[in-house]
């Protein structure tokens, strides 16, 4: 054995020891490196984002800056044009989906270029490293800053997936001024979501975060143009744009100013934001296009009416309760019109707009029918002597005419018979929240002597339009539908729509397609017009927000034309009205039962015809405990067949017997009227437990 051969085992052993040492050294280094990464303290990634108010389709109506005045809108990658994402990665970090946060090749290339040229030629930072810098809100620095970015980038890659890292970058990236994040930038510079971006728009939004102030197109147009061109050239080289697309994009004009964010429905947006603190996304029931149309309409109407006139509008689907448009003033920032005041919620006098409710209640109580006669003549109720608006007394006329002419004396007579408290209770049952000036309600309530808002009145009219029981108004899409209490019967509601459809429309408007009522408050402080068709109800208020009188302002002249125009902008045509319910009593004046031919107070005495029918059971004033069972009716006299009405609703007809059963009218006070073949009648009032 030679000496060299004798040393070979020792050399082999030494090699193994050296290799093992190297492995241990590398393993220890890796453990230290791994510990260095895992112990990295990550800065917060959750940033405050804008509260967004959206329409029912998710389109932006209004956004609010965060507390520090920054516009930063929450973002999901699904909201971004996928082509933009491809172009961004290709330009900023083409190996983004393959590295672990640091691109060594890019760093080596950038370092070599800096050594060769003596200045930075290209950056070596990945998108993750840029995100690290943004999260710490610090500069890159020379070496310490870059090392800190590398450490953070490696830690971020371990914490988040690539999609989330890209989303965070697009949420925090600066785009000039107080704009951060891609969605806010897309709105600020182009007035739209980043779902469809042209090559020119995409190139500018890719270039801006690298030098957000130096490349602001509204201040540094030349620099912005160069930055855009650089991105376009690189994307063309990467095969993502054709030369024709590059040439077209280069010719596009850069935005000269920030577009600003949408400010539709500002009053409703403010209200919802205050009512829902901490909720970042408020999805309303509004139709964005209709909202814009109505805001334009009110601005035009107020401009024509005078420099200090304000106006408000509320449009509602009365079948669902959804608010489709809400305009609190003609111009939110118009100081001369006090545009900041939300006139959809301000308490005002309703003028004559409560009169339909009075008549509907009177129909249900069997006090009158649309064809009943009522006397319009001077009255004095313990010193209260109401006058008609024009000071004229018309004598006997039909109830239909009294409502269409909006006469005060007939409606006060009915209010006195019903009781003002009953009117207030019905108003609250509809979902409205009226306010009395002081004390208990008086007869003047039906003439506007109570505080209501446009929202209250539209809620009431939505109930009337829906057949006497409707849906509570709602303006948030996720709020549940809620039924109001029944205020009047379907038959009474149909009579109201039939009467109010007969009101003459403004000049040039179609007749018979809209049931509407106007109102003018005392001193011409408020002009109202509220109307409905088979699907929608719209309410209009016009006046001065500070309550100053507007001489010569009448609801019929000022607000009614706006109402009809609003329906024209809401939809192509009016929705037909529903047919009358089966129980509706549609009779001519001569066919009405005797008690309904003319309005008389309940305590009026009628001369009894000896051949007229008489209600023997139940007797007048009886209290019955039916426990859900049928009501027994016994008659005497009269000529068959007989009809029975309960509170003005036809319950049964064609009865030839003088003793029969009918379904219970339900608990409460009811007025029963039997009518025979000659139109003769008998009435009793009972209470059913």
How would you describe what is shown here?
- The chain is α+β, with helices and mostly antiparallel strands and 689 residues long.
- The protein has four domains: 1-39; 52-250, Penicillin binding protein transpeptidase fold; 266-587, 3-Layer(aba) Sandwich (Beta-lactamase); 607-688, Immunoglobulins (Immunoglobulin-like), CATH 2.60.40.
- 36% of the residues lie in helices and 15% in strands.
- The chain has helices at residues 3-38, 82-92, 104-117, 127-136, 144-159, 162-172, 182-190, 199-207, 221-237, 243-250, 266-275, 288-305, 355-364, 399-404, 408-418, 420-429, 454-465, 490-501, 555-570, 594-597; strands spanning 52-54, 60-63, 71-72, 179-180, 281-283, 310-317, 323-327, 373-376, 395-398, 515-520, 526-532, 536-543, 614-617, 623-624, 631-636, 642-646, 649-655, 659-662, 668-675, 681-688.
- It has a five-stranded antiparallel beta sheet with strand order 7-6-12-11-10, with helices on both faces.
- β10 (515-520) and β11 form a beta hairpin.
- The longest helix is centred in the first third of the chain and has 36 residues, at 3-38.
- It is elongated and about 130 Å long.
- The protein starts with a helix and ends with a strand.
CATH overall fold name of the largest domain: Beta-lactamase
**Largest sheet geometry:** 5 strands, antiparallel
What is the annotated CATH architecture of the largest domain? 3-Layer(aba) Sandwich
Q: Output the strand order for the largest sheet.
A: 7-6-12-11-10
Q: What name goes with the CATH superfamily of the largest domain?
A: DD-peptidase/beta-lactamase superfamily
Flag low-confidence runs.
Answer: 117-121
Global Rg: 38 Å
Oligomeric composition of the shown chains? single chain
Classify the helix fraction into a percent range. Answer: 25-40%
Structure annotation, total helices: 20
Provide the β-strand percentage band. 5-15%
Structural class by SSE content: alpha+beta
Number of domains: 4
Compute the separation of the termini in Å. 125 Å
Per CATH, the class of the largest domain reads Alpha Beta
Shape: elongated
Round the mean pLDDT to the nearest integer and report it: 88
User: Care to count the β-strands?
Assistant: 20
């Amino acid at each position: 054995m030679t000496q060299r051969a004798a040393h070979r085992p020792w050399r082999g052993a030494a090699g193994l020891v050296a290799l093992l040492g190297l492995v241990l050294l590398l393993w220890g280094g890796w453990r230290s490196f791994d510990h260095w990464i895992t112990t990295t303290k990550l800065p917060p990634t959750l940033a405050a984002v804008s509260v967004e108010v959206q329409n029912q389709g998710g389109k932006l109506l209004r956004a609010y800056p965060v507390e520090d005045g920054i516009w930063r809108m929450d973002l999901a990658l699904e909201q971004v044009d996928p082509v933009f994402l491809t172009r961004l990665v290709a330009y900023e970090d083409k190996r983004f989906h393959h590295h672990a946060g640091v691109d060594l090749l890019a760093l080596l290339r950038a370092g070599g270029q800096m050594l060769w040229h003596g200045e930075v030629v290209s950056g070596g930072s990945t998108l993750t490293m840029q995100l690290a810098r943004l999260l710490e809100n610090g500069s890159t620095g020379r070496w310490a800053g870059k090392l800190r970015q590398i450490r953070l980038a490696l830690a971020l890659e371990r914490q988040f997936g690539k999609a989330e890292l890209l989303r965070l970058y697009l949420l925090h990236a600066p785009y000039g001024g107080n704009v951060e994040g891609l969605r806010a930038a897309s709105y600020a510079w182009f007035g739209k979501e980043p779902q469809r971006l042209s090559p020119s728009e995409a190139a500018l939004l890719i270039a801006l975060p690298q030098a957000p102030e130096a490349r602001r197109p509204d201040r540094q147009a030349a620099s912005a143009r160069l930055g855009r061109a650089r991105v376009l050239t690189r994307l063309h080289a990467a095969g993502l744009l054709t030369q024709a697309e590059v040439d077209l994009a280069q010719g596009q004009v850069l935005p000269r100013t920030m577009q600003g964010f949408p400010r539709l429905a500002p009053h409703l947006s403010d209200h919802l934001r205050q009512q829902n603190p901490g909720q970042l996304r408020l999805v309303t029931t509004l139709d964005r296009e209709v909202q814009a149309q109505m805001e334009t309409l009110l601005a035009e109407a107020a401009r024509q009416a005078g420099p200090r006139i304000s106006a408000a509008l509320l449009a509602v689907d009365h079948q669902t309760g959804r608010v489709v448009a809400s305009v609190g003033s003609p111009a939110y920032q118009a100081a001369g019109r006090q545009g900041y005041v939300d006139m959809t919620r301000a308490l005002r006098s309703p003028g004559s707009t409560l009169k339909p409710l009075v008549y509907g209640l009177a129909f249900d109580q069997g006090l009158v029918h649309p064809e009943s006669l009522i006397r319009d003549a001077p009255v004095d109720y313990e010193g209260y002597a109401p006058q008609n608006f024009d000071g004229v007394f018309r004598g006997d006329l039909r109830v239909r005419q009294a409502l269409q002419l909006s006469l005060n004396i007939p409606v006060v007579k009915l209010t006195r018979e019903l009781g003002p408290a009953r009117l207030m209770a019905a108003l609250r049952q509809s979902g409205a929240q009226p306010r009395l000036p002081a004390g208990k309600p008086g007869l003047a309530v039906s003439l506007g002597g109570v505080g209501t808002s446009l929202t209250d009145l539209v809620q009431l009219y939505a109930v009337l339009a829906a057949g006497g029981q409707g849906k509570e108004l709602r303006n948030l899409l996720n709020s549940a539908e809620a039924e109001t209490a029944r205020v009047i019967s379907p038959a009474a509601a149909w009579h109201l729509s039939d009467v109010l459809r007969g009101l003459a429309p403004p000049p040039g408007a179609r007749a018979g397609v809209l049931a509407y009522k106007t109102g003018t408050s005392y001193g011409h402080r408020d002009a109202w017009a509220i109307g409905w068709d088979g699907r929608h109800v719209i309410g209009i208020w016009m006046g001065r927000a500070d309550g100053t009188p507007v001489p010569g302002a009448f609801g019929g002249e000022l607000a009614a034309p706006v109402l009809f125009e609003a329906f024209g902008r809401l939809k192509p045509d009016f929705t037909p009205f529903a047919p009358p319910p089966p129980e509706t009593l549609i009779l001519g004046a001569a066919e009405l039962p005797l008690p309904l031919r003319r309005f008389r107070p309940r305590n009026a005495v009628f001369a009894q015809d000896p051949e007229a029918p008489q209600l023997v059971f139940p007797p007048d004033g009886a209290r019955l405990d039916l426990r859900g069972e049928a009501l027994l009716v016994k008659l005497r006299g009269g000529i068959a067949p007989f009809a029975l009405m309960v509170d003005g609703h036809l319950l049964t007809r064609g009865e030839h017997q003088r003793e029969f059963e009918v379904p219970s009218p339900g608990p409460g006070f009811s007025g029963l009227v039997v009518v025979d073949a000659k139109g003769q009648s008998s009435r009793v009032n009972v209470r059913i437990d």
